[in-house]
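Quick one, T. Sequence first:
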Amino acid sequence: MKVSQIFGMMVVTFLVLLSAVSAAPGGVDLSDPCVNATVSYSGDLSLVTISNSCTDVSISWDDWLNMTILGNIVDGDVFIGDTWVEVDSVLRPDLDESATITFFNPPFAVEPNILKDSTTCSSPECNLTVTTGRMVLEVGGFSNYSLHAKQEFTVYSDPKPELKEKVYQTVDLGDAHRGTTFMCIVQIYGVNEDGEYILVQTNPKRSIQARLFGSPDQNLPESLGYFPTTSGMANVYFDGGVLSGYNDFEYVVQCSSNSTKLVYEEPISTRYSPVGRDVVGRGVWLADGSNAFYIVIIVVLAVLALLLLMKFGRTLGWWR
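Structure tokens:
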């Protein structure tokens, strides 16, 4: 056999092997010990599910992927966090297909916002289904997706509550809602050992507080069953003295009008100082007309303290 023939056979063999390798269906080859993958094959196509046991999040591509050219999914192609997933669809356009992302025990008490590449994503491009213990996000193509707690207005917290058992906040719905009356409630969710959110309390408590003089005030939040807004603002509270049995909590305020619903959610700490509120906080609290009863009590106590001081001063001869 001539040398040229031998060389030709070697070239043909190399090309056949190269073609076989390049046409091999792609799998998953990630070094993260938390990552598990399930891959099914049908000819040159792969059906892929990747899950991260450390973050309780999984990605399942809905259709068969053709990864024969770019090969296995490797480190740097896919990232999975506790509330986000990221796929480099520039380097891996073969992964830019519809998929289902499942977040197990996500850290939200109410339905969060969905962001795609830092921009709000909604139906039909992004469809979120919420069930107990999981949130399932269906997407039409791949990019960077993340879930974020809704904070559709501002909440100012008072770190030094007037009463040990009550923690006060001021809700500001913003300039766009100054002329609309909203009904607000405050909900506290405790997080159990399974990561489930359990509704611990809803405020205001339904009761009619007594007045110093006259009949009960029917306009109090406790009588209304909600915190009313005035010029887009409301004074709200939750009961911090009865939050036992849980280490972690989620603070939720929901405000509704006839046509609009706004939500605010954030984690809270129960380590509040029982010492008196600061001047600004006290001013906000006392400015609420529904606290007239307490304002009267404060004024009466101040007058009594002044009279006692004057009598004590005369006894000691400070003044005549």
